[in-house]
Amino acid sequence: MQITGTHFNYYLICHRKLWLFANGINMESTSDLVFEGKLLHENSYSRRSEKYEEVAIDGIKIDYYDAKNKVVHEIKKSTKHEKAHEWQVKYYLFVLEKNGITGATGLLEYPRQHKTKEVLLTIPDKTAINDMLVKIKTIINGENCPPRISKPRCKNCSYYDFCYAGENDQPL
Fold this sequence. Notes:
Elements: H1 5-13, H2 15-22, H3 32-44, H4 48-51, E1 53-57, E2 60-66, E3 71-75, H5 82-98, E4 105-110, E5 115-119, H6 123-140, H7 160-164
Parallel strand pairs: 3-4
Antiparallel strand pairs: 1-2, 2-3, 4-5
Helix pairs in contact: 1-2, 1-5
């Protein structure tokens, strides 16, 4: 299985969510929050698709890539999981570099907060990504679903109902 940016993002947010997604249990198609994020993505920069191209390579899909300036643009709804977003973009830069596109940078864009953040890929980042890839594959290929993490952020997760259905514990 090729590792995608979504796998990388989920690894940094919740190992259970990663395992479920990678094993074909996708709750995002019914999530209002995910739909809201897609609308924001489509409507925030309406002319962007005319200017930048979509790149699909080695399992990743970059929606907006400025080939002239070598910039990956990643739009996110909220800064809530900013570290995970940053590493997702670093992973995109890593894959681009592995495919001969050197010197690319990333730009995380949060239209609602009117915030942007530049993302660079460093040598230590490459080492960390290689380590994370091993861990991601171990989780994905694990026989059992990891336990739920029971964090306040779980309330806004598309897998919330799945994780708390039939559990004896009180929901968050």
